Amino acid sequence: MARAALEEAREQIAFLVGARPRQVVLTSGGTESVNAAVWGTLAGDPGPVALAAVEHSSVRDASSRLGPVVAISVDGTGRIEPAAVDEALTRCRNDHGRLPALVHCQWANHEVGTVQPVVAVVARCRDVGVPVHVDAVAAAGHLPVDLDALGADLVSISAHKLGGPPGIGALVLRRGLRISPLLLGGEQERARRAGLENLTAAIAFGAAAATLAAPGRLEAEAATARRRTERLAEAAMGVDGVVRIGATDDRVGHILCLGVAGVEAEPVLLGLDQAGVAVHSGSSCSSESLEPSPVLEAMGVDGERSLRLSVGWSTTDDDVEAFATTFPGVVGRLRALQG
Amino acid sequence: MARAALEEAREQIAFLVGARPRQVVLTSGGTESVNAAVWGTLAGDPGPVALAAVEHSSVRDASSRLGPVVAISVDGTGRIEPAAVDEALTRCRNDHGRLPALVHCQWANHEVGTVQPVVAVVARCRDVGVPVHVDAVAAAGHLPVDLDALGADLVSISAHKLGGPPGIGALVLRRGLRISPLLLGGEQERARRAGLENLTAAIAFGAAAATLAAPGRLEAEAATARRRTERLAEAAMGVDGVVRIGATDDRVGHILCLGVAGVEAEPVLLGLDQAGVAVHSGSSCSSESLEPSPVLEAMGVDGERSLRLSVGWSTTDDDVEAFATTFPGVVGRLRALQG
After folding, report:
1. Exposed end of chain B (fewer CB within 10 Å): N or C?
2. What class has domain A2-213?
C-alpha cells in the first residue's frame, strides 16, 4: 500500500510538470533539490558554474562551494537575457579555458516574480553541450511547466510553494541522466536519494499537484493571484514614492515586489503585522540574515526599502483589502515620525 | 506561532536525548543527519575515517565517498570492542600517517540490536583528540540516552524510529561545535541546515519525544518491546535450525534477528506476509538491493537466511502471537518443498 501510494504521488507530480514518473526524485524540499543538482553535476565534472546573482541563495551558495562562479548579468527587472548567457559562456572560455560545468537559469524569480526566458537559455546551453539546471520553485504550479519540452538536465521544485506541505520537493532529471547522489546510504528513489521516503508528505504533494493539474485549474489560480497582486500594487502605488520592482507583465502572478521611498522595510513589516498582514522583505530564506538582498542589488535596486508580497491558495480578497486599507497609514506614520 | 512551535519541538527533542536545544539541528531524517555529520567533519579535514562494517549503509557510503576507510573489527554478535577501536587508530597511523579525521560508533545496531560500548569508545576517541560520530538512530527512544554525558561530537537520530513521523531527524552537535553545512542556501537552524523548516513534522517529532520523556515511559516501552521480542524468539526457536543473531542481553529490546537454516529469507517473508506479518531481511534501507547484508557478513553470519523482526508502539500482543502461530508452518512447508 505504501509503495503504491508513493508511486501514485510521483505520477501526480510528474504529470503536473510534464515529466515521466521515473524522472522525479523526491527530496526534502527545494533547497535539497538544488544542492543535489549542483553536487550531482559537479561531483563528476568539477568546474566553473555560470549563474546570475538573482538566483536563489541555495543555487548561489551550493555552486560557489564547488566551483568558481561566472556571473550572468541581468537587466533592471532581474531578467536574464539569452545574450547575457552567451556572453557568460564566452567569458568562461576566456577565463577558465573551458565551458561551464553547469549553467543555472531560474524559471521565475522568487523575490520579484520576473519570468526568465528559460526556453531560450536552455536551448543555447544544450546547443553547446553544457548541462543546465532550472530552479522552477517559484514557477511550478503557477505557470504551465512542460519539462520534457524544455529539455533542461535538472529541474528543482518544492511542494510548499504550490499548496503542498513543507519538507518535500523534487529534483526532476532529464530522461536517462544519471547523477551522483547527494545523500548516500540506501537504494531509495532508484538509488538517487537515500533515506526513508517521506510518504505522508509525498501523498500531500501529489494531491496538491493533482488539484492543480485538473483542466483549467492552474490557469484559474494564476489569474486570481495576478488579479490580487495587481490590486495590491494599485493600492500601494496610491502612496507617494512607492514603485514596483521587477517585470510587471512577464511575471508569476503570485509575487509582487515594491520599493518604498524614505522608510526602511522592517518598521513597515512590523506595522503591517500589527494589522494582521504578513509581508516580507527580500527572500524568505534570508529571514535570519540582515544582509540586503543580493537579488535586488544585482538589479540595481535598494533592497533595504523593498517589500515582497505574495498570495497563495489560502489568501482571500479580504486579506488583500486589509493590506490596501492599512498600508498607506503605516507608511504615512513612519514618514511623519522621521520628520 | 510557527517559530514558537518549532522551538518547543526542539526543546522536547533535546530533553529526550540529554542535550540543549541549540545543539539540535533538524534534518530530513537519519540518513541526512549522517551525511551531514560526515560532510561537515571531512569538509574541514579530509582524511581517513574509521568505522566498523556493522555501521548503517549511510555511515559507510557517506564516509567512503570522502576518505579512505579504516576498518574497526567486530565480534560474532556485531559488538565493537574498545580494543578494536584502539587497534584501528594504530593501524590508521601506520597506513595513513595520521589519526582518523572521524571515527564512527553506532549506539545500537539497526539489524541485530546489539548495543555498542559507545561510552568507552567515545572516551577513547576524545582522549586522542579524534572527532567521533554516534549513529543513535536505533537507540534513541529505546534506551536512555544522555548525549551531554556521552560527549560525542556528532549524534544522529531519526523521528520515525521512535514513534514520530517520516521526513524528520536531527543531528545533535557537541556544545560549541561548528561544522560545514551539507545543505547550503539559507540561515535556518542557526545557519547549520538550509531549507524551510518542516514544521508539521517537527511538532510531531517533538510530541513523540515528549511522550517518551515522561517519567518511566521509555523504560516501560522498552520492557514491553523486550518481552515481545523474547516471545518472538522463543516461538521461532521452537523450530529446528533457528538461531538468534546478535547480542541476546545487551541489545535494544525492539529488534530481533534470527537465522533460519535451510531456507532463504525471501520465501519466508512472503509466507509471513500472506498471514499479515511483516518482517524483514537485513536493513530496511537495503530493501531495494539484492546484496547480502554487510552487517551480518562482518559478523560471520549467513545474511541470506536471516530475518529481522521489530516491534514498535503500534505492535500488539496479537501481532506477536500471529507470528508465533504462523512461523513454524511457513518454515516447515518451505523445507518440505525443498525435499
Report:
1. C
2. alpha beta
Q: By the CB < 8 Å criterion, does B12 face chain A?
A: no
Question: Cα–Cα distances in Å, from B148 out to A2, B17, B38?
Answer: 37, 8, 20
- Using CB atoms within 10 Å of the CB of residue B118, give its burial: 0 to 12 exposed, 13 to 18 middle, 19+ buried: buried
Check B197 against A59: CB less than 8 A apart: no
A60 with B29: Cβ contact below 8 A: no
The cell numbers describing A253, all together, are: 502572478
Cell 520553485 -> residue: A137
Entry pTM = 0.95
What CA–CA distance (Å, rounded) separates B310 from B80? 22
Distance between CA atoms of residues B303 and B291, nearest Å: 9
Terminal-residue alpha carbon distance, chain A: 66
Cite the beta strand spans of B5-95 per DSSP E: 24-27, 49-52, 69-72
DSSP symbol at B101:
S
Kindly report, residue by residue over B261-296, the tens digit of the pLDDT.
Answer: 999 888 999 999 998 999 988 655 555 555 678 889
Q: Is A276 on the interface with B (CB under 8 A)?
A: no
Strand duo B69-72 + B49-52: pairing: parallel
- Give the closest residue to B185 by CA, choosing from A283, A321, A121: A283
- Rounded Cα gap, residues A251 and A204, in angstroms: 27
Tell me which chain B residue has its CA closest to the CA of residue A159. B196
Q: What homologous superfamily is domain B218-338 in, according to CATH?
A: Aspartate Aminotransferase, domain 1 (3.90.1150.10)
Residue A87 CB contacts under 8 Å (≥ 6 apart), including other chains:
A72, A73
Pick from A336, A318, A331: nearest CA to A236: A331
List Cα–Cα distances, B335 to A199, B239, B268, B332, B338, in angstroms: 37, 11, 10, 5, 5
CB burial of residue A87 (10 Å; 0-12, 13-18, 19+): middle
CA-CA distance, A217 to B338, in Å (whole number)? 58
CA neighbours closer than 13 Å in the CB half-sphere of residue A38: 30
What is the ipTM, given to two decimal places? 0.94
Tens-place pLDDT, residues B18-49: 999 999 999 999 999 999 999 999 998 899 99
Q: Dump pLDDT digits (tens) for A283-292.
A: 555 555 556 7
Domain boundaries, chain A: 2-213, 218-338
For residue B153, give the DSSP letter. Answer: S
CB neighbour list of residue B243: distance below 8 Å, 6 or more residues apart: B237, B258, B259, B261
User: In the prediction, which pLDDT does A238 show?
Assistant: 97
